[in-house]
Write a structure and sequence with these properties.
seven-stranded mixed sheet, 3 domains, 18 helices, alpha/beta, globular, GMP Synthetase, Chain A, domain 3, five-stranded mixed sheet, Rossmann fold
Length: 560
């Protein structure tokens, strides 16, 4: 074993634990008067934020919350959520950010599985909560959150209403030191089969992730995204990987933050205009909603920098946003990775290249952030070269990756097989270190002995002027094993059929971008493509829908 030299700390030396409270206490040093804004209803400065977090800590403590307890939150994106993201873990408890878009049965499962003991419930979710309350096994008390004037609700074991309780609480709380490896947050990620899986992160992991995210968003010149003078508005749900961890970064730096509550495209556009928002992050489907919002038509969004993650960023969406003044930057991560793993970066070589080449690299998953190790392995676990051509599963190491799944040791061991976190994504690495996600392993289409990337095909199809949105899946074929099938949402005033799509894709075949088997022989024209609870394409549901259509209704299918 390698012998290292360890020097014990001097007597009385302070051994500094990496705790979330350090992030909060840093922010007000920079800009005490910067604002936290909630919709068009409330605004206050960082001094008040710190006081409100202390008040909430007192409310929770007096209600009986102890270190190690799990406190669940059912709310829209708000200043209250931000306060909970700090106050709950800072008293040593664990915040469970409930995905309110799951089915009631799934929410019930996650709450019982996480051992939730205290639940903050927005009045919009009182009906949902009461419908499952009788089956909850560990919840002891509830607390009401409301924007309205009615501060009462029929919630079991109700402690009181959020604002009334905070108003009566002390604005001072002595947040303790404790082990930085204490769990701070948990939430549940859904897969294609089985129950949602619980991932969890420690104080140390969240602090390190925050520092890395701050370095990437504020220090990498080709993607300089957020500094202390920016105005930040998340358009990713706060229940989804802590809104990608960016609220922790913004609070650490004392940045003005704007929280939109329940997402409404028209309100998002209005908040952007009124509050001078300059930095956001979202999945592609939400950006499409923004670009199509009535209030955004004809608007030049110049100066708005947006990170796109969750799903692949294609050329068509990049170009559409650029034409409206929005600078998009692709990033990559997943629930299990906290989530930031990589971000698009243009080095000196790429900056000197053509505009098309720069765009190609701006929409890739990008370069691993500081402290991240990335590699590609084949199905036997052998490492593949970083040559930009060899495809395999992307595996990762970083100090902020979840160490397993809560109470599911076997699945956690599968996730970490061989000492690397397995993403389930097919990717390449090139000599510049750029990750290019080619597909999910389960979504690669195998046809006629060839492997086709559904993401590549979606990107090429999206470049047709009639296409507003596209999803491609493989469906069973008795002759070829699988064939690609495309769902298309067509822009207003346009039309397309399978034959026209084939003509659009033929030049890409001739250029060698795809093979001829990649051209879908059948498409469906739909008004909406199924999405998951966090806005990603729901390809499991799409496959089920296609099977049903083919069996019962072919009126909106177009076949070559």
């Amino acid at each position: 074993m390698l012998q290292t030299r360890i020097i014990p700390p001097a007597d009385g030396a302070y051994e500094y634990p990496l705790l979330i409270k350090r992030l909060l206490l840093s922010g007000s040093r920079y800009e005490k008067t910067r604002e936290i804004v909630y919709r068009d209803q409330l605004r206050y400065n960082y001094t008040t934020l710190n006081e409100r977090i202390a008040r909430l800590a007192n409310v929770l403590t007096e209600a009986g919350v102890k270190a190690g307890d799990t406190v669940a939150v059912m709310d829209w994106d708000s200043h209250r959520y931000l306060e909970c993201m700090f106050a709950v873990p800072m008293i040593g408890a664990v915040i469970h950010t409930i995905n309110v878009r799951l089915s009631p049965d799934q929410i019930l499962y996650t709450m019982n599985h996480a051992d939730d003991r205290f639940v903050l419930v927005n009045s919009d979710f009182v009906g949902l909560y009461n419908a499952i309350a009788g089956q909850l096994t560990t919840v002891e008390k509830t607390l009401l959150i409301t924007d309205g004037t009615d501060k009462t609700a029929d919630l079991p074991n109700l402690v009181g209403e959020y604002e009334q309780l905070l108003a009566a609480a002390s604005p001072v709380y002595d947040f303790p030191d404790f082990d930085e490896n204490s769990v701070a947050t948990t939430f549940y990620t859904t897969g294609t089969t089985g129950n949602p899986k619980g991932v969890y992160f420690t104080h140390r992991q969240l602090v390190l992730h925050t520092l890395a995210a701050a370095a990437v968003t504020g220090s990498v010149d080709s993607v300089r995204l957020m500094g202390t003078n920016d105005v930040y508005m998340p358009i990713t749900p706060m229940f989804h990987v802590h809104a990608w961890g960016i609220p922790y970064v913004a609070t650490m730096l004392g940045i003005k933050q704007v929280y939109p509550g329940r997402y409404d495209p028209e309100l998002l556009v209005e908040l952007w205009r009124k509050e001078n928002v300059s930095f956001s992050h979202c999945v592609p489907t939400i950006l499409q909603m923004l670009l199509n919002a009535k209030g955004g038509q004809g608007v030049d969004f110049n100066g708005w920098k947006i990170i796109i993650g969750g799903s692949a960023l294609n050329h068509a969406l990049y170009d559409a946003a650029k034409a409206r003044g929005i600078q998009l930057t692709a990033a990559y991560g997943m629930s299990e990775t906290c989530p930031l793993i990589s971000c698009a970066h243009l080095n000196e070589e790429l900056l000197a290249s053509s505009e098309d080449e720069r765009t190609t690299y701006r929409i890739k998953a990008g370069v691993p952030t500081p402290l991240v190790e990335a590699a590609i392995v084949d199905c036997d676990g052998n490492f593949l070269p970083a040559d930009g051509e060899s495809q395999g599963e992307l595996v990762l190491r970083a100090p902020w990756l979840t160490m397993g799944y809560f109470r599911e040791e076997e699945k956690g061991a599968e996730l970490w097989e061989g000492g690397w976190l397995h993403t389930g994504d097919v990717a390449t690495l090139d000599s510049m270190g750029v990750i290019d996600i080619r597909d999910r392993i389960k979504d690669v289409i195998k046809t006629g002995g060839e492997w086709i990337s559904s993401l590549d095909l979606e990107d090429l199809i999206s470049q047709h002027p009639a296409i507003r949105e596209v999803a491609v899946v493989g469906i069973a074929d008795p002759q070829w094993g699988e064939r690609p099938f495309a769902l298309l949402v067509v822009r207003e005033g346009h039309a397309i059929d399978a034959k026209a799509l084939k003509e659009h894709l033929k030049p890409f075949v001739e250029l060698g971008h795809i093979n001829k088997w990649a051209i879908p022989s059948q498409i469906a024209l739909v008004t909406e493509i199924p999405k998951t609870s966090v806005g990603k394409l729901n390809k499991k549901q799409i496959r089920l829908d296609i099977s049903e259509w083919q069996a019962t209704d072919s009126t909106f299918l177009s076949t070559l």
